[in-house]
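Re: flavin mononucleotide structure - here you go.
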Amino acid sequence: MQQTEAVKASKEWKKRSIVKDFKDSAIERISKEWMLITAGNKDDYNTMTASWGGIGYLWERSVAFIFVRPTRYTYDFMEKNVRFTLTFFDKSLKNRVHKICGSKSGRNIDKAKEAEISPIYFDNDTISFEEAKEIIICKKIYIGDFMPENFIDKSINNLYPAKDYHRIYIGEIEKFYQK
Ligand SMILES: Cc1cc2nc3c(=O)[nH]c(=O)nc-3n(C[C@H](O)[C@H](O)[C@H](O)COP(=O)(O)O)c2cc1C
């Protein structure tokens, strides 16, 4: 499904330091606030809700790591594009945004239109949403697929009845924007 075309990000977005300005526990932020993973360019992108992932330090750089099942439409965009964004919203928008973006597929609906959020770009391949409060821009530097034989805790298999094991994407954090 064609998604609403993105427009240039407003001047309200200020570049900040991911190390100094990303406040509170990343575990709590990601697992409780949730975030959107978005990949693509201004004409062709997709976004989805995620609550698994992290922010940390690896290979002498700040990184974010996220997990996308190959069954997601967003997976196709993660594969085709060099960059992805992680977008955080205020609590007041959580229901509106994630009810749609975490349950419906961009294959069938225009998520931005349904969730009433406005797609923006910073550079052509960095899509996010104007109503957000924070945006992390990442460049892919590593991918890997979970292998069930490596699950030391076998109960993890219960999370994969369809055997659609996530692909991990590690992204170098290039920019962090706040409003
Ligand atoms: C709270 C929440 C967290 C989610 N976290 C993830 C995740 O980390 N990885 C993933 O592959 N899917 C996750 N999902 C599922 C996708 O958001 C969902 O399947 C979405 O509809 C996929 O959209 P798409 O087909 O347009 O990519 C999550 C859903 C919810 C509601």
